[in-house]
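Q: Entry one of two.
A:
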Amino acid sequence: MTKSQETTYDLVVFGATSFVGQILSRYLLDSYGTGQSVKWAIAGRSESKLNTLKGELGEKAKDLPVILADASDAAALNAMCEQTRVIISTVGPYALYGEPLVQACVRNGTDYCDLTGEVQWIRKMVERYEEEAKSSGARIVHCCGFDSIPSDMGVWFLQNEAEATFGKPCQDVRMRVKVAKGEFSGGTVASMMNIAKEAAADPKLRKELANPFSICPPDHRSQTRQPNLKGAEFDKTFNAWLAPFVMGAINTRVVHRSNAMQNARYGKEFTYDEAMMTGRGTKGRLAAYAITGGLAAFFTASAIKPTRWLVGKFVPQPGEGPSPEAQKAGFYDLRFVGRTEDGKTIITKVTGDQDPGYGSTGKMLGEAGMCLAFDIPAGQPGGFWTPSSLLDGKLMERLTSKAGLTFEVLETR
């Protein structure tokens, strides 16, 4: 008997009362109802908060099942995993709270996805549990929010188009954030501050965080130096000034792992980087320098205990976030430029119709979970995958038909 026949639920949202968890739960309820074509439940450690969430979701949620499980309670996590085929986790920072659930999913052969952007934690999970996941059949897919689905699927889309147009993939791809309107989530800020804290205390971790192949298999490396924008720079392709993009540190690693998981489909010497456009002329240049300085100050302050406390007073806290109206008013527009070894060029565009860190992330995470539950063949091997390497075109269809993303070719030459 397969697990799909044995389980009560298709998927469970763990951490449903977190800020993104609430957005995700509402999205699933509005899109799929309860107990109909999709059997799903909400889970967390507080019964009162889960029942409050059900009340806030309205009459449609009255029959939504509730599962009680604490992130540190191995027995409860195992019991939850036994009941479902897929777990979607929003409980971060994952480096602090995420491992017991990954372990439970791996041991129960339960598929899993999350929205972590913590590369040092992902590496630990791969090292500790990949072989067991391959044995149990559990498919683990990290980074299913704004970091890193638009980047990972954006490169996957560009390479598909390049192969169709040029007969070969692009050896070099650059992503540029043209515009993004939205706020950082409190959970994302907490994760970034935790990474800065860990890196300040561990020279080995600092070296690991600087390695663009840190979450790739050991035999997947490149002799070509990877680009890594660290300061203001002018981009001739888009005629705009650039600043470092804070999510690039995780997105680039995920894209390289995707290449590795597809047997170096993009090429063994494939290069990739990300940056954000700040505009043209003096105004754009000054904005690029200001963003560069601001990011450096944030990570420096977050690494030192006295100033870390001060930073914590002025940034969003976990559980905090914008109103539903503000989420819907947000959007993002990402541009990708790819070049083949012989100089052919393709430029593509990826857009999202809501705030990247909240509204759009909730929809992407939900559809990644649905894709795991319904679109991936049972025989697909277990292990630690990326969105594009496991979910590929099936996720692309869900993102464009349900989650408000668009993928478009702008130019080939």
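Q: Entry two of two.
A:
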Amino acid sequence: MHYHIFTLFPEFFHSPLSCGLMNKAREKEILRFSLINPRDYALDRHKSVDDRPYGGGPGMVMLLDPLVKALNAAPVGCKKILLTPKGRPLGQRRAALLSREKDLALICGRYEGIDARLEELFDLELISIGDFVLNGGEAAALCLMEAVARFLPGFLGKQESTGEESFSAGFLEYPHYTRPEEYSGLRVPEVLLSGNHARITRWRREKALENTLKYRSELLEEKVLQPEDIDCLQKIPRPRPGRNLHLVLVHHPVLNKMGRESTTSLTNLDIHDIGRVWATYGLGGYYLCTPLRDQQALAERLIRHWTRGFGAQANPDRARALSGIRICSSVQEAIQEIAHKAGVRPVVVATSATGTGNIRCKGVRELLSNSPVLLLLGTGYGLAGSLLDEADHILSPIRFLEGYNHLSVRSAVSILVDRILGDFS
């Protein structure tokens, strides 16, 4: 493979490409490198490669002409990559695909960036190595070159090493140990000393799953898991942030069709379906909020039937779903009960189908690590303004960028809870 590196600072690469496996690969002619400086293609006497941005603002922008002329000198068919924060993340799968190329042109930006018209003049693949800012694309190019090179035949001492590394199977790697067997009272796991290769392979798979769940659980959401993987994950102890999330289905005060404050009646489907959400995600609590005594009595009869009456025997799963329901006369009553149990007042997050809110589901998830959260769910035409005003946060609507945003409350709560907690919370 031939790397064509377009950079204003070619000296940046001299040391990294002259040591370790990258240097050995160059000596064995597995890799070749060309360092191209756009400044060499500048025509003015100052060899200018940047200028002030149109519209004003700080910093300078890389000029098109020197860079375009440099890129035009690249080999025909050379795949051109622009290292930029707006690019697709560089992952193991992307690196493997890039390793099939014969020539890769890596464009390293500097200053405030490159004139945006470059992307219209060339067929570029935009790649990012992370959501952070660097001084230029050179460090990112080094990361990409090394990640891609590891897939090339002969680059690694043992070709099977690539298949066992972190991310290769979609998981983080298992832990490694070497001599001595004991150090400062810490012993190497006995299974690795057993000589039983089947047990060792199984242990390594389980530890890879455990590390991934603990440190990078989002990777599991992208992986199709085998039944044995799921069995393993279910046995691993982990924090349960869902226990800090409480729901309250508010029937008063809510808005009616005319936009006036009113009270709505209980709905059988809402009670049952939100109860299933409570049980499925292992939430801390589910409250039905209504000040009407006849509605409270109705809810009590329904819950009693499914949790202690004939319904409990006929449908145990339904009994479990409704066993977590509590009835309260006001939102404040629910807040006080949660505060009494947790020892701290819950953060109150109201939901609304209008506006933009001031917190997203990821933000709610972060709150759960430090305190209980009470999610207010409105019936009728939404929560009354008094509840929205008193809430600590208002959650962004599910489809706030669309014109139609009218889900049933039971559908909305299913979506919101899943976005907040996810599969591997």
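A: Comment on entry two: The chain has a mean pLDDT of 94. The first helix runs from residue 20 to 27.
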